[in-house]
Amino acid sequence: MNAMTEPTHFDRLSNQHLDALEEETIFILREVAAAFERPALLFSGGKDSLVMLKCAEKAFGVGRIPYPLLMIDTGHNFHEVTDFRDFRAKELGAELIVRSVEDSMARGTVRLAHPGESRNVHQSVTLLEAIDEFRFDALIGGARRDEEKARAKERIFSHRDSFGQWQPKAQRPELWTLFNTRLQPGEHFRVFPISNWTELDVWQYIEREKIALPSLYYTHKRDVVERKGLLVPVTELTPPKEGETIESRDVRFRTVGDITCTCPVESLAATAADIVIETLAADVSERGATRMDDKTSEASMEKRKKDGYF
Amino acid sequence: MTATNTIAAPAYSTGAGSTNDTSSALRFITCGSVDDGKSTLIGRLLVDSKAVLQDQLANVSKSGEADLALFTDGLSAEREQGITIDVAYRYFATPTRKFIIGDAPGHEQYTRNMVTAASSAHAAVVLVDATKLKWNVDGLVDLLPQTRRHSLLVNLLRVPGIIFAVNKLDALGDDATAAFAKISEALQAFAQQAGIAVTATIPMSALKGHNVVEATPGWCGYQGPSLLALLETLPVTAAETDVPFAFPVQWVEKFHNSADTTQGRRVFWGRVATGTVQVGDTVSIHPSGQTAVVAQVVNHARVPGSVAAGHGAGITLDREVDVSRGDWLLAQVTPAADPDDEFADTPKPRAFAEATREIKATVAWMDDEPLVAGRVYLALHGHRWIKAKVKRIVHSLDINTLQEHDATEIAPNAIGHIELALQEAITAVPYAQSRVLGSLILVDTATHKTSGALLLS
User: Fold this and answer.
1) Is the peptide bond before B412 cis (omega within 30 degrees of 0)?
2) What is the pLDDT of residue A304?
3) Alpha carbon of B305 to those of A65, B16, B296, B312: distances in Å?
4) Cα A281 to Cα A255: distance, rounded to the nearest angstrom
5) B399 vs B143: CA distance, rounded Å
6) Cα distance from A22 to chain B (closest Cα, Å)?
7) B361 lies within 8 A of chain A by CB
């Protein structure tokens, strides 16, 4: 089924290091279960969180993940992803908590500058509200340090103050595997068990473990327009601008976030093995290829993290 | 599309101390000031191994030429102020190995950052800037203080592979070969004096790319591998298998898959600190002192087998005993053979010393407030939290020479020797014997900051 056209490159690629990455991730997932009273695992239905979930199954046994799954819904998610999220949570017998930006808007805690504004940034508010509501003391996230520069500096156990803020200059040194998980009331931790994985590692692991993903990750026909070097999907939320031509292209998503700021790439890759090969040959980073909102400023992610963004 | 629930058995080594295991990712740190070409070296490794993609390259390119150094300054505060704040982790892979670089800033809070990065590193690349060295009248080289400091620190932390990378030799033109020979000689003399085992000394031009990714045979009289080729073959940390079995219990899982009630009904999960564990081993439980026999061992992903130091394990015991997170399972050493029988065939298993409440340690201090005698801190040993009182500051160390000086406090970013009294006894093993049993962190009771790293003497 994984008929490869050019197997040589792939054959030379070792995936033995995945054992060590998986082992580290499982160690961290168990540490969270043991060291915190009310942890939750952020689960979007995307590839990184599905990899974490696979590791959690190995860590705790199938159907025994000892913390709820939490999803912050912008209301602008691809239905293929949210459907898959629900399916997977049900299959695992896991508790799934969904909190939505819409609700925060209704409460008045989130106000949009204009109706079309991306809600991605506003997830922070809803997330902090959920942390308050459930008194979570640790949130496990699927962020990877290879995604961008501010992440490269963040600890695996990342301390957040009572405003949910990350303080890069006051990070706790992370020595050996002695994780200082001590908290003051109101504070919490963000924990990143797959910090040391790269996009390629994630795809190699998906391929090795046969992890099922939402169909969006694989090639499909989609109406898109070309805008500033990106392929923008044509949806109700992202209509074409005047003068733009709608084309049907073979595309896949490298990352599946908020519809208003996530773009697919042109691809015929139909399996994880195909994507491993594509990733090896890729010459643009995951964010560079797919995210409209990160292009505005090099420091935009750092600023958002300081404000409590995941 | 359906998800599968089968747990694939990953290829996993049951062998003890597989020191030539190059399948694991190699974690290495780079030491040196920014001016020594550290950022350029990292940039060169990333670009030449194609770990940097076009959009990232475009971000650091001015008039078409990439400034390699710019990859390593990630935070806006760093770019604005031109300083580096904290350790950054970077990744690249070759067809045979994945690498994790702990990029510790050289000049800002160097001790704290370097100790952080070095604590989990398999190797350290100490950059030596050939253009900055002073030649004394005898034609000998004086090493820079930072070369000594960085080498001494990574050696103190027991980073197994230490590589001297003599950089910027291209700037010396025709004198490069002679200069490299002299610098190598000086490095060798220093390493010997300091008791540092050096893996290699490589002449390099990070700017031109000599001996970084591609070897430049014969350049500066050097015929060895490039830095990358060397890193591809370095072993990850030699497993501490010659020390008796020790296992800090991280998490206790209620046993649920077996109807066999003759076994204990709980699995103890954690990472083997030292030694090896297999079914049938007798262990004692610290601190309760009870003993039990290992009934089942699985690896981190629940695959049965024996597990060696450095790897995750789940252990089931043959009887119900009180074990919780923070406890240790320790080798129960069978009564030794007659101590006078020096011709015994098998080496006698070494037992751990009695657990103790009095410890001596080297401390790397990381808090903004100095360490003073008399204060009580929270200490973490394995997964066990204990209160620790600083009884005495023995002396502080000159970080450039590791010479001892009388002191009444340990300043931020300084290193010293201290004595502590613990609320509960621990099985203390010198850091030189075990990185896990021999290390603790101190956490401030008021701020909860990680204030110090302890290496047991």
Assistant:
1) no
2) 54
3) 24, 12, 8, 12
4) 17
5) 15
6) 9
7) no
- pLDDT(B205) > 60: yes
In the predicted model, what is the mean pLDDT of chain B? 83
pLDDT for res B261? 52
pLDDT tens profile B119-135? 999 999 999 999 988 87
What SS3 state is found at B357? strand
Q: Check whether A234 has a pLDDT greater than 80.
A: yes
The ipTM assigned to this model is: 0.86
Per the DSSP assignment, residues forming a β-bridge with B27 are B100
Q: A91 vs B3: CB contact, 8 Å cut-off? A: yes
Q: Does the structure show a pLDDT above 60 at B57?
A: no
User: What is the value of pTM for the model shown?
Assistant: 0.88
How close is the nearest chain B Cα to the Cα of A45, in Å? 13
Cα distances (Å, whole numbers) of residue B60 to A148, A171, B69: 14, 27, 9
**pLDDT tens, B33-52?**
767 788 888 888 887 776 66
**A30 to B77: CB separation less than 8 angstroms, yes or no:** no
B247 and B317 Cβ atoms separated by less than 8 Å = no
Q: Is A97 on the interface with B (CB under 8 A)?
A: no
**Predicted confidence (pLDDT) per residue in B410-420, tens digit:** 999 899 999 99
Pairing of β B312-317 and β B266-271: antiparallel
* Closest listed residue to residue A80, CA positions, set A309, A262, A248, A229: A262
Q: Kindly identify which residue of chain B lies nearest to residue A61, measuring between CA atoms.
A: B302
CB contact under 8 Å between A299 and B76, yes or no, is yes
Query: Could you give the strand order of the β-sheet that contains B26-31, starting from the edge strand earlier in sequence?
Result: B88-93, B98-103, B26-31, B123-129, B161-167, B200-203
